[in-house]
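Note to self: user wants both folds in one dump. Writing first protein now.
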Amino acid sequence: MERYKRVFKEEYAVIQLGGSIGSKSIRDKKQLKNKKYEGDASKLFSTEQEALNKATRLNKSLSPGEKQYYKIKYVVAEVIDGKYTGN
């Protein structure tokens, strides 16, 4: 009997943490654990470095008020087989 090892497709998404008080915003990447990725597949990155570069660019474009008052920042989240891993 032959055993087959399942190969997982590992990708990375850039997500926004924080936001306005009235909305249900994500405060931590761990809240996403095992949730399905519902975004556009073209917005996923194949390497962590590409996603990190995009997050860095987006963070630089935020105003001081968005950073301090709304606590908005962009981070990289790992997506395996269409689900967030929480890392």
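First done. Writing the second protein, which came from a different request thread.
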Amino acid sequence: MKKAVLLFIVIVATNFVMAQSPLSNLIGKRVFSEETYDFMHSLGKYETESFHDIRHLMYFSAGVEIVYDSKDGTIASIFLMGHNQMWYKPYTNELPAGLTWEMTKSEVETLIGKGKEHHVYANDYVYHYPEHFISIQYASEGEDPKMGSIQIRSFEKE
């Protein structure tokens, strides 16, 4: 019995670690810190946009947008942009959870499980996958849409 429980714990812990993207480790870190420097520096130049206390660092040529709270300077989320995202080139590095931009919603859910629909705006659908620390925006082109962007985030404050 003890061996079975220990094996279960090891399997759950392994799946939890595998589900996380290395980028999810940056959520909650200070935006301009040593911990985030290498990643942010690798993205190149950025432009800034602000909405109240929220700041967006937009790396158009890298396909990344980092969102942080100006009050405490911590990263709230990281958006990875896919194809056809206005002004952004697609993010070309490894995506979380073994995803690829070519995947449809049904392929994503076969790989990582069903998402929870959060909200709909325009012709886009957003689904949360909390166990993977991601939300995915799908462009509604047909019955089985492809991913448009991935948001890496924490689901603690939801």
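Dump finished. Worth passing along: Residues 2-19 form the longest helix (18 residues).
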